[in-house]
Write a structure and sequence with these properties.
15 strands; alpha/beta
Length: about 350
């Protein structure tokens, strides 16, 4: 059976098409009797308004675009989950695309959404994302997230990656660890660089030697980095990984090598993805409430669409969540016990593996 059109509704209600449009869009004066006739005709004909046609008449699509650097992994699925909950509550739909960490792909994704969405959330940890998004989006509202978002005068949300990293290292020092390694994220990634800088600052402040192993934010790279660390003569007694995925990978490498976590090596990650609380031992991490951050981003974008004069850069402060991977302290002799002030710090030069 052919779907009903707005003209069918108008004929059945004995009103003009314009009157039907005013009733459905809630715009313009109509009498209560006319409104009731139109709604009765809509129900009788099971009429569903065409979203494309509606957007032409109202200049709104009730759809927002989200561009992520990747679609893989628990971090991005949690972020989208939070956005989707907020979008549904506010009567919006999401169109999600990935830039694949590539500037040309990001440009293509932004162009493809022009005219199809009312606003855009761009999450990019690389330099130039703000200029790219704002330049291509035209007058469309844009909310920027993560490293590339921290620019004055643009609505944005950014995580305090540096402060979170400092908190992670200070926690490990407080429980008696002195040979603290860092599994870093990919080069050129602003979040990874901020977390590395926080690690280096906290280690320098404590006059401790540094050990840095490169990673790519994946479990596989964390496992590879963990294997490198287990083979060192000066094996670390703690590891701060730049995200939970790499921390979980390193945890597996340590366990494969017969090391106990946390007795032999304490572990701290970053993000608090759902998996962090499910692995054994459960992972100490920096929580940023991923889904809540996504919900907040969507709500801010909708306010921007409604002409909100919002140009603030909101900073998300990570919260240290201590779990079993960093709760057993070594004594000076290396056996599990309470923190000892007599732990000797090896005289190692700072290095990068």
């Amino acid at each position: 059976m052919k779907p009903a059109t707005i003209r069918d509704v108008a004929e059945r209600a004995d009103v003009s098409v314009a009157s039907v449009s005013r009733v459905l869009n809630g715009a313009g004066p109509v009498t209560e009797a006319t409104r009731q006739r139109v709604l009765a005709a809509v129900e009788a004909l099971q009429y569903v308004p065409h979203s494309g046609a509606r957007s032409l008449s109202t200049s709104k699509t009730n759809t927002v675009g989200v561009i992520l650097p990747d679609l893989y992994g628990e971090f991005f699925s949690e972020l989208i989950r939070g956005m989707d909950v907020a979008a549904r509550a506010l009567g919006y739909h999401l169109i999600v695309s990935s830039s694949h960490d590539d500037a040309d792909e990001a440009s293509s994704a932004i162009r493809s959404m022009r005219g199809r969405v009312d606003g855009l959330i761009v999450l990019s940890p690389h330099l130039g994302a703000a200029n790219l998004a704002s330049g291509l989006a035209g007058r469309m509202p844009v909310l920027l997230m993560n490293g590339g978002a921290a620019e004055a005068g643009r609505p944005s949300i950014v995580v305090d990656n540096h402060g979170g990293a400092v908190a992670a290292v200070e926690h490990l020092i407080a429980i008696g660890r002195r040979r603290i390694a860092h599994i870093a994220g990919p080069a050129g990634n602003l979040e990874a660089e901020a977390r590395l800088a926080g690690y280096l600052e906290a280690m320098a402040r404590a006059a401790l030697p540094t050990m840095v192993v490169d990673g790519t934010f994946t479990k596989a790279s964390g496992q590879e980095a963990g294997a490198k660390l287990t083979g060192r003569a000066d094996r670390p007694d703690a590891v701060f990984a730049a995200n939970d995925n790499m921390a979980v990978g390193a945890l597996l490498a340590f366990q494969d090598a017969g090391l106990r976590v946390p007795e032999d090596v304490a572990m701290v990650g970053f993000d608090d993805i759902p998996l962090a609380g499910l692995v054994r031992p459960a992972l100490t991490t920096l929580r940023i409430n991923i889904a809540e951050t996504g919900r907040n981003a969507l709500e801010r974008l909708v306010r921007l669409i409604g002409s909100s004069a919002d140009t603030a850069c909101e900073v998300v402060q990570p919260e240290l969540v201590v779990r079993a991977s960093s709760t057993v302290f070594p004594t000076a002799s290396g056996a599990a016990g309470s923190v000892s002030n007599s732990i000797q710090t090896p005289s190692l030069e700072g290095e990068k593996l």
